[in-house]
Amino acid sequence: MPETGIRPRPTTWVTAPNLRMTVGADTLIYRDLGPSQGVPLILLTHLGATLDEWDPRFIDVLARDRRVIAVDLPGVGGSTGTVPGSVAEMAEAAEGFVAALGLRSIDLLGFSLGGFIAQQVALDDPRLVRRLVLSGTGPAGGEGIDRRTGGAYIYLDMLRAVLARTDAKEFLFFPRTPTGKAAAKEYLDRLEGRVMDRDEPISLTAFRRQIAAIRVWGRAAPQDLSRITAPTLIANGDHDRMVPSSLSADMQARIPDSTLVIYPDAGHGGVFQYVGDFAAAVLGHLDGGSPTP
Question: In what residue span(s) does the AB hydrolase-1 domain sit (predicted)?
Answer without folding.
Answer: 40-271
